[in-house]
Design a protein that fits this description.
The chain is an alpha/beta fold. The protein has helices at about 20-30, 40-45, 55-65, 80-90, 125-135, and strands spanning about 10-15, 35, 70-75, 95-100, 105-110. The protein has a single domain (about 10-135), classed as Rossmann fold (3-Layer(aba) Sandwich), CATH 3.40.50.
């Protein structure tokens, strides 16, 4: 193995509902050619309320800006919607994955198959259309 080989840094976005899958998401990214940057592993869940949540959101956005790609796992939460929009604004490659409660359940997800949490406040059909028209979908 080439220990200095450059690989894409992948920001991994997921709902708090799938917090328990954070290490398996990282494993998936490693095994699919990327270097995972998982905010739950960097900050925990909002740094366990030790700082204002907006500081953590700003931290996440800085990590997205420095990443090569942004991959979304599982149901899309409001926070993930913001991350999708920001990643697209920056021209980052993006990808979407379904996931259940096991590593084996992680698989690519078509845009039409995206599932949004009930609390999501944007028009999800418009967002799906915007994603479909977005030219930078990850091929990893």
């Amino acid at each position: 193995m080439n220990l200095i080989e450059k690989k894409p840094v992948v920001f991994t976005a997921q709902s708090k509902k799938n917090f328990f899958m954070r290490m398996l998401v990282c494993k998936y990214v490693f095994e699919h050619g990327g270097i995972p940057l998982n905010p739950f592993n960097v900050f925990g869940y909002f740094l366990y309320e030790l700082v204002d949540r907006d500081l953590v959101r700003n931290g996440n956005n800085n990590l997205i800006a420095r990443s090569d790609e942004v991959w979304f796992f599982g149901e899309i939460a409001d926070g993930c919607v913001s991350e999708i929009e920001y990643a697209m604004e920056l021209g980052k490659k993006i990808a979407f994955y379904k996931m259940g409660s096991t590593y084996q359940s992680i698989e690519k997800c078509a845009i039409d198959e995206l599932i949004f949490e009930d609390e999501v406040t944007v028009d999800t059909e418009k967002l799906k259309q915007k994603i479909k028209e977005y030219p930078y979908i990850s091929l990893l």
